[in-house]
Amino acid sequence: MPRGDKSAYTDKQERKADHIAESYQDKGVSTKEAERRAWATVNKDDGGGKKSGSGRGKDTGRPAAHKGGRKGGEASAGRSAAERSASAKKAAATRKRNAEHHTHR
């Protein structure tokens, strides 16, 4: 199979690459570079094409799209203690207010 041949990729992987490339293009990245990055991301997430052989479609752990928990805390790290405290108080008040509206039966 020559380099760049996408025949081993599933329709879902191709859609994923299209969406990723589109997102990069919206941010001003060239079409060629956006495509390159998109397929690199699909390969990183899924370990390459899934169409052939046994074990096809096997889960590959933690894809880029599921990094949420590990990235947490970065936003609050750059803020002062007073800002964090104010934010926490506001959040607590919101939770309390919502609890009053949604009492469990």
List low-confidence stretches.
none
Radius of gyration: 21 Å
Number of helices: 5
Q: Major sheet, described briefly?
A: none
Mean pLDDT value: 83
Order of helices and strands: HHHHH
Instruction: Name the beta content range.
Output: under 5%
The percent range for helix content is: 55-70%
End-to-end separation: 61 Å
Number of strands: 0
Helix/strand-derived category reads: mainly alpha
Query: Can you tell me the overall shape?
Result: elongated
Write structural notes for this entry:
By secondary structure, the chain is an all-alpha fold. The chain has a domain at 8-49. The chain has 5 helices and no strands. The chain has helices at 11-26, 31-46, 68-71, 74-77, 81-101. The chain is elongated. The termini are far apart. The model has no long low-confidence stretch (mean pLDDT 83).
